[in-house]
Amino acid sequence: MSTTTAPSGCPFSGSLASAIDPDLATGELKPGASTDFPLMPEGEAVDMGHAPDGTPLLDPRIFNTMEFFRNPYPYYRIMRDHYPVFHDKLHNCYYVTRYDDITDCYFDDEGFNTIPKGASSGVLGNTQLELSGVEHRRRRNLYGQHLVGKSLNNRIPAIEQLAEEMIKDWDNMTPEQGVEDKDGTRTVALGKAFANEFPIRVVCQVLGFPDEAREDFYYWYNSMMSGLGGSETQQEGLEARQHLEDYVEGIVEERRKNPTFLYDQDGNSLGKDVISKLCETKLDGDYLSTEEITSNIALVVGGGGETTRGAILNMWYLLLQHPDQMAAVMEDEEKWDLAFHETLRHSTPIGGQPRHNTFDVELHGVHIPAGSLVNMVDFSANHDDRIFKDPETFDIFRDDLYSGKLLRSGYAKEGRYSHMAFGVGPHLCPGAWISHQEAVVGSKILSKHLKNPRIRVDLMPKDIDGESLAPIGLISVRELWLEYDLD
Ligand code: HEM
């Protein structure tokens, strides 16, 4: 089995990523990052002084520190309580941090438009992520069918089969590949041996790449994702995108004549795969260009890997640190749904979204001139105690989080609120349903194989006391070392 390394970029970048910009693989801050702030116990903010009226001051240099990276939530609390719109003059942008305000801005895609030619466009090309209004709506549903509803449900057996195959491979894997057996127990690097690759295998299938393209697919995925991570790797990302476009060019005509299909476990057709659908799609009477088809594919490839991998690893990391909740999930597998949504609320892999305001705006007394960069901080919305009680507590049984059927156009139902991890409004993640199935179905299968699972604390990064496990902070768990009993 070939394993992928965790790439270092994501098209749905965390709002503060550009301000902080660490090396995601090592957690090291890049040159220029400030180290002037001490590392605080989790949940406590550095005292940066107070205004004469007692308001705590917030120095934006904190955003460039390791302290903020591992312990962001007390600073978001200061922002929500005292600067709900924070003008960061150092990084020349604004942050919106309250749940209700972010929701209003996301729904108002005329007033707060997505960023054309944003960070992802170089590598991924022009995608729907960067379009607003009518242009966005026309492209939004080109291939959505396989990511939702009945078609997705019919694909669950295929997702289960992929998970089973990957776990079966562990019997033949080496410590370098992330699996080691000793004294009746097995240690597994859950990222390397499962979560890094599982979501991209699912996406590769749904798109309709033939098996022989799988190795190329990993190359496109890894290089394009690294290319989103920074300027040094952008060239590599651009080359991979060109390689993908050349590949797509070679199959477009053939797929128009002879489309390929997805099937359920009984061999019934579920309709054309995503690539075949894109190849036959016409907008204003013209077929999509190869460039447009490639961009759509690149966005699904890019959007479907790193995000879901983070959700799976964060979920297991959090559950295993809360043994009572883990036990409840193991006892009743219906509770994986609760665990998935609470994980995305507590520690979402995607921190927020950038927008530009189209007009001059006055929000909470702050004037935002038209055309400013306004970051919607989903991390903060998910921890807004105006919405979620004890937001820093991981609790799959909380009664304020909506965990039912994902809400397309609303966000509050029966007194409960959705987390913000998938965004809301016109750009609500179309992969939300499939990533939910991947994480839940994959975890159900994992839980059947992992007897008495526990974290190999000795192999994991530690917090500042040198003993307890490091908090997740702003970056998803990079690797999760687990041990379980073999019989
Ligand atoms: C836990 C997993 C995931 C998270 C947290 C996530 C998060 C997000 C967020 C926050 C957005 C909104 C961007 C915005 O408002 O500008 C988004 C959009 C998008 N996501 Fe996901 N995503 C996940 C999984 C997936 C998967 C599995 C796919 C594909 C199979 C996918 C495909 C997309 C696409 C195509 C968009 C663009 C939608 C648009 O702009 O209209 N995502 N995602």
Name the structural class. Answer: alpha+beta
Hetero groups: protoporphyrin IX containing FE
Give the integer mean of the pLDDT values: 88
How far do the termini sit from each other?
24 Å
- What Rg is obtained from the alpha carbons, in whole angstroms? 22 Å
- The total count of helices amounts to 19
Strand content: 5-15%
CATH architecture: Orthogonal Bundle
Number of strand segments: 17
- Shape, please? globular
Helix coverage percent: 40-55%
Strand order across the biggest sheet? 1-2-13-10-3
Q: What kind of sheet is the major sheet?
A: 5 strands, mixed
How many domains make up the 3D coordinates? Answer: 1
CATH superfamily: Cytochrome P450
Description:
The chain has one domain: Cytochrome p450 (Orthogonal Bundle). It has helices at residues 17-20, 66-70, 73-82, 99-107, 121-124, 133-140, 149-154, 156-169, 190-195, 198-207, 214-229, 231-257, 274-280, 290-304, 306-320, 323-331, 336-346, 378-381, 432-449, and strands spanning 85-88, 93-96, 112-113, 179-182, 185-189, 261-263, 269-272, 282-283, 286-287, 352-357, 361-363, 366-368, 373-377, 412-413, 416-417, 451-455, 481-485. Mean pLDDT is 88; it is low at 1-8 and 14-27. Strand 11 and strand 12 (366-368) form a beta hairpin. Helix 15 (306-320) packs across helix 17 and helix 15 (306-320) packs across helix 19. The radius of gyration is 22 Å and the shape is globular. The chain is α+β, with helices and mostly antiparallel strands and 487 residues long. It contains 19 helices and 17 strands. It binds protoporphyrin IX containing FE. The site of protoporphyrin IX containing FE has 27 residues, from helix 14, helix 15 and helix 19.
